[in-house]
Amino acid sequence: MEATTMLLLFALLAGQRGCTCTASVATGEGGFSVDFIHRDSARSPFRHPALSPHARALAAARRSLQGEVLGRSYSGASPAAAPVSAADGGVESKIITRSFEYLMYVNVGTPPTQLLAIADTGSDLVWVNCSSNGGGGGGDGPADADAGGNVVFQPSRSSTYSQVSCQSNACQALSQASCDADSECQYQYSYGDGSRTIGVLSTETFSFVDGGGKGQVRVPRVNFGCSTDSAGTFRSDGLVGLGAGPVSLVSQLGAATHIGRRFSYCLIPSYDANSSSTLNFGSRAVVSEPGAASTPLVPSDVDSYYTVALESVAVDGQEVATHDSRIIVDSGTTLTFLDPGLLEPLVTELERRIKLQRVQPPEQLLQLCYDVQGKSQTEDFGIPDVTLRFSGGAAVTLRPENTFSLLQEGTLCLVLVPVSESQPVSILGNIAQQNFHVGYDLDARTVTFAAADCTRSSASS
């Protein structure tokens, strides 16, 4: 009961401090929306039913801090994701990875096969399992043992399936992918933690159930990997790359349709486990809520990443640090990683302002935690807003629920952490993005943020 009370308290504070507007999307033709399912939501097969909400939050923080592999993959990446020859003749594209956080349903082929895929804003390739060895690489707990990787797409049963030649632009975009005897494009696509998928680059009709009530949206000739073997921790029926590179779903939708290369999402708070967030494409991805702020994309070390320039941070409107820093906006990372030049003065100011009792962090994972045991539902924790100021004049104000999280009963912790030698790149994680409508526009080369009530938006879509 106490755990439930604390979650309700933090939810109440979120509602009091947050914007009361809903995340609006344009209606009519030119766009569609799908469910964006968090791995810990009631709709996810990866949810651990025995874990408390606090334990799930702690597990998510733990996944983010498995940073040694993540850091190596970031620091070793090149602007073109340079290939490394694989022992079996494939091509390895060094793209970052981390434990996935969001999923989406896709329907592949004619007639369609429905698959539950990882949705990844940090990589490009779209791929699905085409054999029993094509996906599902193990799990991180009891509930994962039989979840994911169970549905196999059978190309022979689809009338719209075809393979891609080595001379195609899509094959060339995978950096020297190998050719078989029939000049078909064989690929190996590897991620920073050693996970990989191997298969045949193909085309197929993809269809999406439109959450806006418009039925199904069919997109023909989507380039995708028909995975015949994989290794690692995918635990899904495939992966949808939503990155900024040429073979991502976003880029392909822009090339094949009139909806443009843009998408958005509105992430519901993690304590709302019974709802799904919304992922929008095309006209529905326009972020037009009051106070929407856009910042330009800047050159990135890897084509897939959505990188922007963070210039300063402020607490309750008072600037506490100025330091130019490139930061990746990513839905697949839970925590937010900041340059110490920005984070250290921010933590000092938060410590000065917050009057709660300090406690040791769970598992020594985070640096700043407070005791909120027994606080009443009407008592404000006294946590100030934090504003991130980006290039182009964009200012994004994070509410307490974006910067602190209950990681165990009665323990509230700052979920902003420093970059380090093992994780040297700044990342704006998904807790910081909750209750924001976040839009990515590759045509305009911008990322746009607007405060929103994402639960109401999801319910009305």
UniProtKB/TrEMBL annotation:
Gene Ontology CC entries for this record: extracellular region
UniProt protein name: Peptidase A1 domain-containing protein
Location, primary (coarse class): secreted
Residues spanning the signal sequence: 1-21
Source domain of life: Eukaryota
Subcellular location per the Swiss-Prot or TrEMBL entry: Secreted
Peptidase A1 domain location: 102-450
Keywords (A to Z) from UniProt: Aspartyl protease, Glycoprotein, Hydrolase, Protease, Secreted, Signal
Family of the protein in this entry: Belongs to the peptidase A1 family.
Gene Ontology BP, a term: proteolysis
Protein's UniProt keywords contain Membrane: no
InterPro entries for this protein: Aspartic_peptidase_A1 (IPR001461), Pepsin-like_plant (IPR034161), PEPTIDASE_A1 (IPR033121), Peptidase_aspartic_dom_sf (IPR021109), Plant_Aspart_Prot_A1 (IPR051708), TAXi_C (IPR032799), TAXi_N (IPR032861)
Entry-linked PANTHER family: ASPARTIC PROTEINASE CDR1-LIKE, OS07G0603500 PROTEIN-RELATED
Family matches, as PROSITE patterns: PEPTIDASE_A1
A molecular-function term among this protein's GO annotations: aspartic-type endopeptidase activity
Active site: D120, D330
